[in-house]
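[job 0412] stage=complex_fold ligand=LQR7VSFR status=START
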Amino acid sequence: MCQKNKFKIALCQTLVEDNKENNIKRVVKLIEEAVDNGAKIISLGEMFNCPYRNDAFKIYAEEEGKSETLNILSSIAKEKGVYIIGGSVPEKEGEKYYNTSFVFDKEGKIVGKHRKVHLFDIDIKDRVKMKESDTFSYGKNITVFDTQYCKVGIAICYDMRFPEIFRIMVQKGVKLIIVPAAFNYVTGPAHWEIIIRGRAMDNQVYFCAVSPARNENESYLAYGHSIICDPFGKILGELDEKEGILYSEIDLDYLEKVRSELPLLKHRRLDLYSVNEK
Ligand SMILES: NC(=O)CC(=O)C(=O)O
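[job 0412] stage=complex_fold status=DONE, emitting structure tokens
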């Protein structure tokens, strides 16, 4: 029996190739396996149906309401009675494109939609270059939604580097944060784990980051290493770079214990923190 304050989460780290149908087939297979293993909230990685390349985003983009990918996720969420965090997909709306995560509840309804708010425009010389803003427009919202278990916050990849949005999520009552993300072979080893442990520990939340698996035939080499960290900053599990599913129990009683024993959120000096920054 699933208690409301303890439940199993599954992070599906799938390989992404230049073939949408195959990408979706892989995702469906792993979601079904996660359901069979008792997961109640299941998340996919950033760009799970499309290679992480500017020249692919517009070709793979779909519109909400007419999207084959979203229809499939909605049907499985409903059929299996689970929440699905639909990683992210290239979304088209009018003339604009977004890197968007759609969230489905147990009835298959969209209950959350996050458009990446910080676009990944970087140039680490001779190693990794990406300019998402060549294709995507900026999202404008911080995204939280309710589940039967707790409030959940969603961000996408590069958003993870900006701590302000997670503190706002926590002020809104979030206890679990899920970030579909595709760090790479350079920034992953350097920053992935330290960011995730820091965000989990400062905000005293469960923090999950879900990557695609690494595809050595692609130009962008994803880091993989999907990970779950508890509210004390302890890593509960981490994959390597290959396809797989990471499971963990989320224990909201433990979260309350951490918050009451080490009351960081209560000890904040809100009178000191505001700055007029341009
Ligand atoms: N891919 C991203 O959006 C971010 C990333 O790889 C990083 O911040 O590093």
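The pocket of LQR7VSFR is lined by residues 120, 157-158, 161, 182-184, 187 (CB under 6 Å).
[job 0412] exit 0
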